[in-house]
Amino acid sequence: MARIRVPLSNFQFGEVSPSMLSRTDTKIYPNAAKKVKNFFLRNEGGLLKRFGTRKIYEFDTTVNTSKRQQIRIIPFIFSDDERYIIALENLKIRCFKIDPSTGAISLVETITQDTTSAALPITDSILDEITYAQSGDVMFLCHQTFMIRKLTRTSLNDFEVSTYAFATDTDQHNIFQPYYSFHGLDVTLDPSKTSGTGATLTTSVNYWDTTGSQTGGNYLSSKHIGLTIRYHGQEIEIKSVQSATQATGDIIDKLEVHLDTDAIETTDGTADIQITMALHGLSTSDSITISDAGGVGGITASNINGTRAVQEIVNENVFIVTAGANANANAVGGGSPKIETHAPTTQWEEQSYSSLRGFPAAVTFHENRLWFGGTLSQPDGIWASRSGLYFNFDVGDANDDDALDLTASIGEINTVRHIVSNRDLQIFTNTSELYIPAFTDKPITPTNAQIRRQTPYGASFVRPQSLDGATVYVQKNGSVVREYIFSDAEAAYVSTSISQISAHLINDPVQMSILRGAINRPESYAFFLNQDGTLAIFTSNRGEQRAGWAQFTTNGKFHSICTVDERVFLVGQYDKGDGTNKFILTEFDSSLELDFSEDFTGSAGVFDVSTHFANGAVVDVVNGDDYLGQFTVASGNVDVSAVQQITAAEIGLKFDVEAETLPIDAQIQGGPLTGNPRRVNRVILDLVSTLSVSVNDKPLVIRQVTDDLSAGRTAVTEKKEFRLLGYSKDPTVRITQSAPLSLQINGLIVEVSF
Questions:
Q1: For the chain, which terminus, N or C, has the lower number of CB atoms within 10 Å?
Q2: What is the full DSSP assignment across 668-682?
Q3: Positive or negative, the Cα torsion across 476, 482, 483, 485?
Q4: pLDDT in tens, 697-709
Q5: DSSP state, 739?
Q6: Which range is least confidently modeled, 150-159, 162-171, 580-589?
Q7: DSSP string of 281-315?
């Protein structure tokens, strides 16, 4: 019988898919596992049992298992000392403050209405689709179904929610918001006058929304009511709708067309002045009013300005009127005149964001601008504020600091789902990944902005985040996690699957959170909250070409997750012991071994847990380095006095811990051992600070019969040998725990007989 040692030195590639069980030919195989459950993967390739979770707050939300998410927690970080956790719920926002000195978490604000006393538009049906971006005291919340909301920290312990409002000019006559021509190119708008209220607005085809039945000659439920349209740049507020072709509106200012410089041309010896005005819509004999024109060709300004009749239509962009005097030269000029007119025109637009057209789905800050993207009616729209002015979206004359209005058009309609500020401005749609390149010598401006398509996969609603130099996102099908990174070799972005070898761990994620610098360690982790309530955990080190996955489960379900600095917060769904599921805000805590747990104080082994567990709950009890076992809550108490009469204990719920290698194989002279009966004789575990571990159900012996049992248990930090029996064609090494105590493994060596 031959024996061979197989060094399985680490678990750096984590848990891999069942399809890898026969891939003994890959470099991954000896450093991967069949299962890694409730372990952190360490940089060195070892495993550290994940921490327990401490109860922070019990939500009063009734659990509905048919909902994807009912509570979503996100971070709100103002400064190093002022950090918060924001819980989004159905029609509600709760704000939790993290005490800068003690780290304690407390609820400081519960919001159910905005500043106008209106109910919040947040519903649990869209929680996982809401995007957000924060700057200072303000967080913007976006979804296609509601106007952008501002969550504002008004003081150390106070928050409020308000509706985002675009900036206006000093006299409130212009709203600096995006506009779009939702009508066809040949559709005209004909106002009945140039100023005042009650202007009749007639369109050449059906346009106005006629929702609901007509009452008193008006469609009272029309979604156009209250919206703003723009006629040659001048705004009109819609007050009522009478039919699909007729509405009534109040003209905010005069309907004046601002002409380009030098729009007037004169002919020597005549009073005819030719005016250039794009798509003027005028007819012969129409009356117009000219203002702010300067003298041209010897005709004074007073003889140009005023009310004039159109004498001739040259073309759709040029017409002729008669001045009050003859010109003495052929000349071009006139300064920057204005034409007051209400002629039918195709040069009109409607505000881009509304309950009729939808609202932005994506938001971010990039290069000192606020960016929005993807409404229902403009799914491929991208908008950026003026530089440094987050409420001003006036495109102006396309100067460098003006707002941007772009379209992510690549030959097909893309629905923008996320905008990410990274090396470049990255755009994730339902079908593709795009970007707007950065420039070394100047920022993105209206004149240099270029949207470039890179890869054709599409993103889900899960918010992408940066990890290890790449942007990580969930593909639209919900079964693949990809990284989007710029390749210098290809001079383009590439999108690579990072979940390919562990695809079984990805189950339609609803949320992602990144832990940078990890918990008391240098590792970074990406947490993916799956639809089934499990967590898929990814860690990588690009420099070492190392990446791996693991899975976290709990005695219940994980429901939401967010990270703040090196702290990981979760909302868990737990049965308190009476069959009633509750949502519990918890935190990973390196001092705890149990989930949904707390450090309790008592007397003579009796602990009051009535605020934590219901009668009948079966709980686990840990006292320092000892596991006392499972106990049933009775009369609100846990009584361990028959085991130990202690005054302090950790009480919570045990979670399973398991790591199992791939089938042990080795390359010998005749080839691999795959398929041959073989036996694992010995397993040597390199342990660190370990109090409980079993190998193939054979437990580690911490104490010998000769030890002083009155002394405390000493954690093992050394290599420990386990001898095993039995042949198998696919032998594995399975590492578990019988007691919820500390466990860390640096690596292992296996001796195989064949």
A1: N
A2: ETTEE-TTS-EEEEE
A3: negative
A4: 999 887 554 455 4
A5: S
A6: 162-171
A7: ---TT-EEEEEEEPPBTTB-GGGTSEEEEEEEEEE
Let me know: does 217 contact 242? Beta carbons within 8 Å. yes
What does the pLDDT average to over 653-672?
Answer: 77
The Cα 742–Cα 292 span in angstroms is 82
Q: What is the pLDDT of residues 172-215, one digit of tens each?
A: 678 999 999 999 888 999 999 999 999 999 999 999 999 999 99
Q: How crowded is residue 213: how many other Cβ atoms within 10 Å of its Cβ?
A: 8
Query: Do residues 47 and 36 make contact, with C-beta atoms less than 8 angstroms apart?
Result: yes
Note the pLDDT of residue 703: 56
Give CA–CA dist 73/198, Å, rounded. Answer: 48
Pick the CATH number of 189-349 from 3.40.630.30, 3.40.50.300, 2.40.30.20, 3.30.70.380: 2.40.30.20
* Segments making up each domain of the chain, as ranges: 3-34+659-753, 189-349, 459-554+565-571+585-591, 595-654
User: CA-CA distance, 754 to 612, in Å (whole number)?
Assistant: 53
> Which tens digit of pLDDT belongs to each residue from 231-257?
998 999 999 999 999 999 999 989 999
SS3 452: strand
**CA neighbours within 13 Å on the CB side: how many for 662?**
29
Q: Residue 22: is it exposed, middle or buried by C-beta count within 10 angstroms (0-12/13-18/19+)?
A: middle
Query: Residue type at 136?
Result: G
